[in-house]
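note to self: dont lose this again. the chain is below, predicted strucutre after it. 333 aa total, dont forget to put it in the shared folder this time
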Amino acid sequence: MNPRPATATAAPASEPAKAVSTPRIPAALAGAVERAWRRAAAPADWNLQRGEFHFALERSAAKRFAGAPADPKKIEAYLDALHARDLALAVACASGSAAAWDVFMAEFRPELYRAARAIVGSAGGDAAARELADSLYADLYGLREPGGRRKSLFEYFHGRSKLSTWLHAVLAQRHVDEIRRARATDPLEDQTGEVRAEIEAAASTGSARLANAPASDADPDRAAYLPALQAALVAALGALDPRDRLRLAYYYADDRTLAEIGKLLGEHEATVSRKLDRTRREVRSRVESWLREAKKWSDAQVRACLECAAGEWPFDLSRHLKASGANEPARKI
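---
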């Protein structure tokens, strides 16, 4: 059984569903709703209620026809064209169905890794692709908000495209957001709900161009930055909670999957994903603070120094992680 994933970090590819009014589908279109339900063919162990699916259809139609007069024929044609099975799977996963999550992981995990490799490109490498794909699981599984309601990225899927196509677009947008955030630019925003062409273009080529650019062209002070970056990173890793260091070591040094790490540490795969993301952010924050306080560098110098980490540099992360977490207990698989 595939454990389920954890947190939300990147902006989704469309507006939140709850931000759109959801008028009821006219009773005259009950036949279209019934056809969609039959096409969905949700297995009983998904525990998907017909009312939940009906609401997802209403939400999808409201998103598509927002601000437009309700034309029953157009709504019927729209409902008949939806990817009903993918929509049902997304709704069941968002509701916390373990069986639905297992189906999703079995069918879409390979596709997510393929998409991530295509987005990151050969310059990024398999490790970066795996990190990009794994970071999405937490957002898809979602977190429980006050009141017990689960907030999942799946709520942004409306069934207009295949689920695999939507996942690819979300991965691409997340990758571009990370590139822009690393360069302290404005975050990417897409208010239309449609996949913007520049997202996939930048995701497929932008990071490769950046990674392949000569270091001397990007930053003539690289030789001075690298020793400081290494010292800051060693200090940041050393300041982490031992269990957080061990989790990083399993993921980056041992190249273990989220599921394997979960078994070793007695954590849910979702929890592993969430804590890895939190620890990565903590390390970055500690590195930035160290550079500002110990080196007295400006924000521009700190950003330039951090950009050095995107290229090749002589720092053995595996050695430092394993040395830090060598004495930590773990469960055997």
